[in-house]
Amino acid sequence: MNSELQATTEAGRKFVSLAEEHAADFATRADQHDREASFPHENIAALQESGFLAGPIPAEFGGMGVNTLHDISVGMSRLGRGCASTAIAANMHIAAAWEMSRIWRWREQAAPGMAEAVEGLMKGIAAKQIIACGANTEAGTDLSSPMTEATPTEDGYAINGRKMFGTLSPAANLVFSFVRVPEGDGFRGCLAFYPKNAPGVTVLDNWDALGMRASGSHDIVLENLRVPRASVVPGRTWGVMDAGAADTYVSLNFSLACCFLGIAEAARDLAIERATRKKGAKAKMLGERVPIQQLIAEIEIGLATSRAIFDRVAHMADAYFSSYAPGEAPGQEAYAMLKENQIMKWVIQRKAIDIVDKAMTATGGSAYLASSPFSRLYRDVRAGPFMQPFAPYEALEYIGKVTLGIDPQLDR
Amino acid sequence: MNSELQATTEAGRKFVSLAEEHAADFATRADQHDREASFPHENIAALQESGFLAGPIPAEFGGMGVNTLHDISVGMSRLGRGCASTAIAANMHIAAAWEMSRIWRWREQAAPGMAEAVEGLMKGIAAKQIIACGANTEAGTDLSSPMTEATPTEDGYAINGRKMFGTLSPAANLVFSFVRVPEGDGFRGCLAFYPKNAPGVTVLDNWDALGMRASGSHDIVLENLRVPRASVVPGRTWGVMDAGAADTYVSLNFSLACCFLGIAEAARDLAIERATRKKGAKAKMLGERVPIQQLIAEIEIGLATSRAIFDRVAHMADAYFSSYAPGEAPGQEAYAMLKENQIMKWVIQRKAIDIVDKAMTATGGSAYLASSPFSRLYRDVRAGPFMQPFAPYEALEYIGKVTLGIDPQLDR
Amino acid sequence: MNSELQATTEAGRKFVSLAEEHAADFATRADQHDREASFPHENIAALQESGFLAGPIPAEFGGMGVNTLHDISVGMSRLGRGCASTAIAANMHIAAAWEMSRIWRWREQAAPGMAEAVEGLMKGIAAKQIIACGANTEAGTDLSSPMTEATPTEDGYAINGRKMFGTLSPAANLVFSFVRVPEGDGFRGCLAFYPKNAPGVTVLDNWDALGMRASGSHDIVLENLRVPRASVVPGRTWGVMDAGAADTYVSLNFSLACCFLGIAEAARDLAIERATRKKGAKAKMLGERVPIQQLIAEIEIGLATSRAIFDRVAHMADAYFSSYAPGEAPGQEAYAMLKENQIMKWVIQRKAIDIVDKAMTATGGSAYLASSPFSRLYRDVRAGPFMQPFAPYEALEYIGKVTLGIDPQLDR
Amino acid sequence: MNSELQATTEAGRKFVSLAEEHAADFATRADQHDREASFPHENIAALQESGFLAGPIPAEFGGMGVNTLHDISVGMSRLGRGCASTAIAANMHIAAAWEMSRIWRWREQAAPGMAEAVEGLMKGIAAKQIIACGANTEAGTDLSSPMTEATPTEDGYAINGRKMFGTLSPAANLVFSFVRVPEGDGFRGCLAFYPKNAPGVTVLDNWDALGMRASGSHDIVLENLRVPRASVVPGRTWGVMDAGAADTYVSLNFSLACCFLGIAEAARDLAIERATRKKGAKAKMLGERVPIQQLIAEIEIGLATSRAIFDRVAHMADAYFSSYAPGEAPGQEAYAMLKENQIMKWVIQRKAIDIVDKAMTATGGSAYLASSPFSRLYRDVRAGPFMQPFAPYEALEYIGKVTLGIDPQLDR
Q: Which of B353, C310, D97, D200 is the most exposed, having the fewest neighbouring CB atoms within 10 Å of its CB?
């Protein structure tokens, strides 16, 4: 009886298997990259080389053809076991590739030119020419209210602003950013994409954090970046999280949470390895002590819970994305989907933090030494609750409002 | 988007739908039966009349043919919403009927005569002639070590002992009990079945508890009860929980936990109904207050977690029961299955208690009045952690031992 | 080493010792009163007879002279061990007597006539002629916004309204109620007191709740109740919780929380008694099992925490009440005092619920039977979080606002 | 109303005030030492220079004369606010100095020569000549069963072994270690002290941990270290934690837990500073949002709980140490004192971890950057549960056993 998450499609199984191979390799360098805060360029190169980065791209364009969020996310959880920084960095690109494949699957509902654009990007990814990342967070505002502005020019836009948490930016060559475009007295929310090496784009080399130190989450400064008109896609209402925004958040953030499940799984394995090996004070194996058994049980319960909530919500999500074209779901459906997604994220991330904590306790003082992988897992895992779009307390408010049938705009 | 549990088979959908109808009816009398501690004979009669009690019986014998534990359990959760006492009482019979259908599906592996016996029982159930209950708990010992003894006689056995928590006994006419049979210097664990109205069987009218007051969980005293040889089925090793015992525990207890999920769902609905109606101090709907939204969110997270862990483990259980004949699973598989089952039970029952508590908090002081259904739900839901085979702290020890690959006998 | 709460004054020690004697007596009838929902008139009579009800009354007026909230509250916790319903009923009166003694200690700052009025009441209490209770809660509003109205008449007021949770009302002969008096376009918040047997006062015999069933917390209906002018004391601003209201809430509710500490202590004793007695399945004393030891430890930690937070906040409260005349504390001090009080209440009540739950788990299935005191403790203890002035989520909001230096009016 | 911990003696107030001054200074360098894992020699020098290190030394020998564990511990909590690494390093010495002063207060009960030896050490400390540290932890065994062995020689002992977590070792010149001395077929537990610069003592420069990086907790290797007979003080039974061991553990570890309270207080202050400053997305101060108020409230409740449990147990400890000479308390008293101490430690350390977590959540993503003090607090605070003598699960077992009156030797 294997209680691990399993892919449900043939393409998914290959993707997951590939993730496991990469994870085993990445694990050997994870501590070093963490210590040096160095970007694991060789990991991303390996992921590109093996075709993993083309996982969600349809086979007809040269990708692996993994077409369910479930299987993609299972793969990301496996990657997270080896090196969480690499996993969240790779997830930036994988989520973008998934979104492209989604647009393409619904190409008959897409805006004119969109399908072609997306097809080109996907071919570029499959051809190992494109690595994409998003840069969306800004200080002092929320995702629905970007301050970065795309000012119309004669032939396109000039973009100015500053983005944070530009994970994967050292390796990416294509960047997506939420921007605002002046419209009447207000703004319209849009999505801009641009080459990382375009004039006006500066990736600062300033990522220095408690954990996820190898994720390259630098700031990205945009100064008078000129892009053609087609590179700014009209999107949502600026300043409110409408149904379209909810739809996008789910699609782009779903698999991210699973990287943290992978951290928890790695911590669990370490604790069990220790408990079944150590000869403690009185020459008793640690795992023979009932309190250690209980800690291990609490870890297993936590993992089982996380896997179950993932499994159930992932199937909901795949049903949702099969039913509605991007941005076309009725408001209540999109809100309900984001609600389920946030429940999943809430559970997985709190459980992951708790599991790492308990695994350290079960392991004992050696878990506190820098030479222990726990010293990395403990820091990496804390990144989860900071992830977009909601802080934990915001997620509660959102979930409650949707459940009660109230307009889910947060009181902030 | 409906996040409720759903049956996965056509027969299951009918069973669940029937459960919903019954639940709506039972809910109208639940408070009264609770207050009077009266047994809801009319509810059990209705369940028999509608065919619900023949839910797991194959269609060829006149049953509904629900052949997955998943769907059976979903039905029990629905029943639990209306009247938890009735649900756990009915579950006694449903679990026995499920076990019969399981034996019959694996009849080629069964002991001689077993298939015929089971077929007869199932036909009796479908013909609305048999209602079965178990009586297994004894004071001062655990399930694997019954003190009730079946002493061999010339033509069968004489059984003496005292059982507790004989849920459904007022309505049942067939009783199952774990007994021990002397063997060498020790005992063998066996399963006995006997008519409730046989000489020597006394159902005391003594069930008086904090909650589940309408479940008829009386003590059953067996004094020189004579049964034929075929009525005592050799089972497990006495005094240890071996793989066969683990297998049986899962099969007989699986759906029980779901009755508590139903309690939680009822509490959730009450809280939401209140939050979207009440005009509080300052004429604001309760649900418009962020702290109430957060409480509702925590309830939803708890429910989503319970449903997800059920869904995943139920699918594991159905796969397990499709793979192995009763008692034939390899030890590690049976232990692993019971481990997953106990994780599920642990999560569902703690979450149910927590959900009722939070729903009461969200509702306010009126939830504390005897006229509120909460005053019943609060008492009923606390029964869960006392349910066999493990107390919560024992479950942790068991889960930990299995995970660590240690012999899962508890240190007790 | 005794970790129980101890009185700190000589008068306090006598009060606590008396409480212990009463508790031992009340414990013998607690289950019966609970089952019958009968009011323990004989308990209240015994408390009056022994002088306990005159605990806070100065010795010069014939009372016991317990002049610290700390010692009074320790006494109430002892009473709570025996019968929580009696304890919270008695607390109604004790809190009122404490408030009178407080007013009298600061009589030089009191309004004209107040000291004399209070002196008369205290003498009446010491002479065993007066038993006082409050009736303040109303459906659909909060404590600071009573809807019960005192309409000025020629010679006083006519009061109309309906109060809930009139704990102790079967035995009281003097009642206090928050009322509003029309003032300009709005209202002024006032405190009215009146004889229970006055025309216009009807104590309904309708208390029927989940727990605290012997507390006599009936509704009290006031219909054209005529009182003289002096019986309505001008108090606070109506509709907001200003500093004066905060001051009153602390003074009148402080000792109430300790009744719940007493419940927790009773549950702890039961669990330990059981753990050191029971011979379980394999003839091992329950307490010899490590998981039971851990449960007992968690109970002890919970109790130690509750006692500690009580001890520290009670000393703060006694310092506060020694420093400021009633209603005269600066706003920030009164808010800060109520904040500390609410922290104490929050901790004690959640811990008490948790301790009862864990004690039941440690005890096993017998704790679920109606014959077990746990079946009463489990229901009684849940009353705590419903107690005035704040629900748990409101308490958090209040504590946070005061800590952040924000106006502590709740967003409701 | 100030809810901070306060010293209760005049000497204590000076000590606490001095701690606050030092903490303000140390805070300016804490992040740098953390990042470099450099030992804050200048901090320890400043503590020596100001007389802080002579805090517990009687005034007659030139110390500050702080003679209650309560006040000493309050001082350590203040130091912990500024730099936790420095605080736990200084605590090594302070605890040793406290233990010396305790022995000296009970000098009439002390072994011959002990008073003189201790007097000499205390004068040396007051004269700023001695800084003491302990080195007691060893891999693969527990505190009561040291493997480091003192072999009798003609004129004393030869000591061999390896100690871990030699906190403060870079600055100390006197080291204390638990050792074993062969006795019959077994061993006797003893306490050895020796100059750090003695031949045979090697302090490795190998401390590299998740947090507490500036604490200098290096390994100390003892190879054929020769010490005179008087430097090995006979102590406890080897291999069991008897009453004498319990007595010593309380005395030497009591104040350590308070350093973690200081971390929690620092985290709280940062969160409040942030909440009352930040202009969030919609130009609203963070603290104006109810969910942030609730987080702050939970932090305040956690702090209030920690402070209260400290206050109460510290007063118990001071009463205990005033009643019994070192090692002379009856077994049940010593066990009970260690039980209370472990309850205090358990609460303070879990709450501290929780408070830092919640403070980070309230602060938002900036708390995850290396430039935020939170990135240090989050790592430092996790050291707590690893501290001697018990892991959290061991503490539960110990507390439970003592409560149940069972021999408190752990089942390990």
A: D200
> Count of CB atoms within 10 A of residue D185's CB?
5
Is the whole model's pTM more than 0.90, yes or no? yes
Q: How many CB atoms lie within 10 A of CB A123?
A: 17
Contacts of residue C28, Cβ cutoff 8 Å, sequence gap at least 6: none
Indicate yes or no: CB of C209 within 8 angstroms of CB of B397: no
CB C83 within 8 A of CB C23: yes
At residue D12's C-alpha, the angle toward residues D7 and D16, to 5°, is 75
Task: Please tell me which residue of chain B has the smallest CA distance to C382.
Answer: B368
- Partner C contacted by A290 (CB < 8 A): yes
CB burial class (10 A; 0-12, 13-18, 19+) of residue B256? buried
Taking chain A (412 residues) in runs of 10, the rounded mean pLDDT of each run is: 95 98 98 97 98 98 97 98 98 97 95 91 98 93 92 96 96 96 93 96 97 98 96 86 93 97 98 81 78 97 98 98 95 97 98 98 96 97 94 96 94 78
CB A62 within 8 A of CB A54: yes
The b/e string for D135-150 (b: 16+ C-beta within 10 A; e otherwise) is bbbbeebbbbbbbbbb
Q: What average pLDDT is seen over chain C? A: 95
- The CA distance from A298 to A271, in Å, is 12
Query: For residue C156, is it left (φ>0), alpha (ψ between -120 and 50) or beta?
Result: left
Integer Cα distance of A202 and D93 in angstroms: 51
User: Rounded to whole angstroms, what are the CA distances from B386 to A89, B21, C286?
Assistant: 47, 29, 16
**Quick one: tokens of D191?**
């306490």
- Token pair listed for A331: 């408001």
- CA pseudo-torsion sign A10, A16, A22, A24: negative
Six-digit token string for A270: 């370490």
Residue D327 carries which side chain, given as an amino acid letter?
Answer: G
Tokens (6 digits) for A381: 């895992």
CB distance D83 to D27 below 8 Å: yes
Chains that touch C (3 or more CB pairs under 8 A): A, B, D
Contacts of B276 in chain A (CB under 8 A): 404-405
Rounded Cα–Cα distance for residues B372 and B364 (Å): 11
Q: What subunits make at least 3 CB pairs under 8 angstroms with A?
A: B, C, D
Structure tokens at C127: 């002479």
- Helices in C137-226 by DSSP H: which ranges? none
> What's the rounded Cα separation, in Å, for the pair A375 and A356?
10
Residue A158 half-sphere exposure toward CB, CA atoms < 13 A: 5
Cβ atoms of residues D144 and D195 within 8 Å: no
Q: Which two tokens stand for residue C402?
A: 């005061």
ipTM of the complex: 0.96
Q: How far is CA D314 from CA A67, B25, B32, D307, in A?
A: 62, 60, 53, 10
DSSP class per residue in A99-161: HHHHHHHTGGGSPTTHHHHHHHHHHHHHTT---EEE--B-TTS-TTS---EEEE-SSEEEEEE
Beta bridge partners of C164: C137
In Å, the largest CA–CA distance within chain D is 79
- Residue type present at position D116: E
**Spatial separation of the C-alpha atoms in residues A75 and A91, rounded to whole Å:** 10
3-state secondary structure at position D315: helix
Tokens of D335: 């066990």
The rounded distance, in Å, linking the Cα atoms of C118 and B345 is 58
Tell me if B368 sits within 8 A of C386, measured CB to CB: yes
For residue C172, the one-letter residue type is A
Q: What is the pLDDT of residues C249-305, one digit of tens each?
A: 999 999 999 999 999 999 999 999 999 985 545 567 889 999 999 999 999 999 999
Task: Select from B311, B312, B339, B341 the residue whose CB has the most chain A CBs within 10 Å, as the one to mutate to test that interface.
Answer: B312
What is the residue-wise DSSP string for B230-257? Answer: GGEEEEEETTS--HHHHHHHHHHHTTHH
